[in-house]
Automatic annotation (TrEMBL):
Keywords: ATP-binding, Glycolysis, Kinase, Magnesium, Metal-binding, Nucleotide-binding, Potassium, Pyruvate, Transferase. InterPro entries: Pyr_Knase (IPR001697), Pyrv/PenolPyrv_kinase-like_dom (IPR015813), Pyrv_kinase-like_dom_sf (IPR040442), Pyrv_Knase-like_insert_dom_sf (IPR011037), Pyrv_Knase_brl (IPR015793), Pyrv_Knase_C (IPR015795), Pyrv_Knase_C_sf (IPR036918), Pyrv_Knase_insert_dom_sf (IPR015806). Residues 8-338 form the Pyruvate kinase barrel domain. Residues 373-493 form the Pyruvate kinase C-terminal domain. GO terms for molecular function: ATP binding; kinase activity; magnesium ion binding; potassium ion binding; pyruvate kinase activity. This is Pyruvate kinase. Homotetramer. It catalyses: pyruvate + ATP = phosphoenolpyruvate + ADP + H(+). It is found in: Cytoplasm, Cytosol.
């Protein structure tokens, strides 16, 4: 069993089918490195219990795992309190009403947003489904707005469907929904659940403008420990795509939510936006995550051929991580899904055109390069030329290691995070755990925390001992064998050094 199943990372959503210690341990062993907690459903106590199990699983498997909190955001929902099954017939009409006290039926669907009548015009397309699940039409329905009556919206049903369950998401194609990106509920969750748990990533649902990210960051900065949390903007609609460049500049990473994008965009356009968005993330050196890749594995042991190709293409397009939603949350085969996706990623990585990618990145960065950028690209070039089996990078903020990963080396990058001692005048504390976990979403980057007694920029002797620990770790996990070459990137004094070492034994 290789320690590095794939360079591409896997984010798994924990839920009913994947929240026991055994299930999470199996997911970690299969290759999950980030656990996503989706607050669209389940309360804080439920997620807390899952998180405690995750901590036990991490201890048991000795595998690091980061935590991502996913906000609800301005999600439109059909409210079906009594959970009756609703049958909708093609060409019949149905009314969407903001009066939530009414019972849901095949004639009337109460929704959680009062401004719909003002936002839509006759002819607009509305999609209703459970978790926007697949394109599978039997559980989801397309509606066309025929008229607006006061607060109510009257629609014609475009396909017969049966809606079952309590929660249906409503999506209006290409229409601005006037609800805040960070709802009061989201803020409450971040305060009461996110802050005490020191979450590593915040996935900001329905990011539409750079301002959304700025407001979230300002809110996080007031929550003490969360000032270090990285914000990933989740792009779910055309509005987000139209402001993509400025959102990318503001955010720490991007999640392309293809389920929603596929509803907001004509299907034939989705691939184009995926390619251009991933390219922009790669050039900016910010992690890009792709969702909705193997939907059919929610109920099946194997993905479809199209899905398998799709996962491989996401890797070839440059994504850092693949995010699994329903497949691990409530799917029947969470562990198999993770290992299948990991295997497909590993195959695609073998044929990833690193040479072309490297040249393109260097050209994009331009000259003169910054000091760090030139060291990072040199380390990768050297490692490829001498066929090194691994690049070891000493870092305290994690930035140097992320920059090396930006050039997509063909071998794993072991980032040895050297904890820094800091004080707030009252007590001393070590930083480093955040930085180590946050690299778990970057392709090819594998963190390990060094002993805090070894400062990062000190004498060469302590560096030697930390290097020995890193090499032993590499050997134990099977990536480094005797007579291999290893490229080491570290700071000595004020300058950064890249050196090549050949192992004798």
């Amino acid at each position: 069993q290789n320690f590095f199943p794939a360079m591409t990372k896997i984010v798994g959503t924990l839920g009913p089918k994947s929240r026991s210690v055994e299930a999470i341990s199996a997911c970690l062993k299969a290759g999950m490195s980030v656990a996503r907690f989706d607050f669209s459903w389940g309360d804080a106590a439920y997620h807390q219990e899952t998180l405690e199990n995750l901590k036990l699983a991490i201890k048991a498997t000795k595998k690091l795992c980061a935590v991502m909190l996913d906000t609800v955001g301005p999600e439109l929902q059909v409210v079906n309190k009594s959970e009756v099954t609703i049958s909708l017939e093609e060409n019949e009409s149905v009314v969407l009403t903001p009066h939530q006290g009414q019972e849901a039926s095949s004639k009337l669907l109460p929704i959680n947003f009062a401004g719909l009548a003002k936002a839509v015009k006759p002819g607009a397309t509305i999609f209703v489904g459970q978790y926007l699940f697949t394109g599978s039409e039997t559980t989801s329905v397309w509606l066309e707005v025929s008229e607006v009556q006061g607060d109510d919206v009257v629609c014609v049903i475009k396909n017969s469907a049966t809606l079952a369950g309590s929660l249906f998401t409503l999506h209006c194609s290409q229409i601005h929904i006037d609800m805040p990106t960070l709802s009061d509920e989201d803020k409450d969750v971040m305060k009461k659940w996110g802050a005490p748990n020191k979450i590593d990533f915040l996935s900001l649902s329905y990011t539409r403008h750079a301002e959304d990210v700025r407001q979230a960051r300002e809110f996080l900065s007031k929550l003490g420990d969360l000032s270090q949390t990285l914000i990933f903007a989740k792009i779910e609609n055309v509005e987000g795509l139209n402001h993509f460049d400025e959102i990318l500049e503001e955010a720490d990473g991007i999640i392309l939510s293809r389920g929603n994008l596929g509803i907001d965009l004509p299907p034939e356009k989705v691939f184009l936006f995926q390619k251009s968005a991933l390219h922009k993330c790669n050039m900016a050196g910010k992690p890009a995550v792709v969702t909705r890749v193997v939907d059919s594995m929610t109920d099946n042991l194997r993905p479809t051929r199209a899905e398998a190709t799709d996962v491989a293409n996401a890797v070839l397009d440059g994504s850092d991580a693949i995010l699994l939603g329903a497949e691990t949350l409530r799917g029947l085969y969470p562990v198999e899904t993770i290992s299948t996706v990991g295997r497909i990623c590993a195959e695609a990585e073998k044929v990833f055109n690193q040479d072309l990618y490297f040249k393109r990145t260097v050209k994009y960065v331009g000259e003169p390069m910054t000091h760090l950028e030139s060291i990072a690209s040199s380390a990768v070039r050297a490692a490829i030329k001498v066929k090194a089996s691994v690049i070891i990078c000493f870092t305290s903020s994690g930035r140097a290691a992320r920059l090396i990963a930006k050039y997509r080396p063909t071998m794993p990058v072991l980032s040895v995070v050297i904890p820094r001692l800091k004080t707030n005048q009252l007590k001393w504390s070590f930083t480093g755990a955040f930085e180590a976990r946050q690299s778990l979403i970057v392709r090819g980057l594998f963190p390990m925390l060094a002993d805090p007694r070894h400062p990062a920029e000190s004498t060469s002797t302590t560096n030697e001992s930390v290097l020995k620990v890193a090499l032993d770790h590499g050997k134990a996990s099977g990536v480094i064998k005797s007579h291999d070459r290893v490229v080491v990137c570290q700071k000595v004094g004020d300058s950064s050094v890249v050196k090549i070492i050949e192992l004798d034994d």
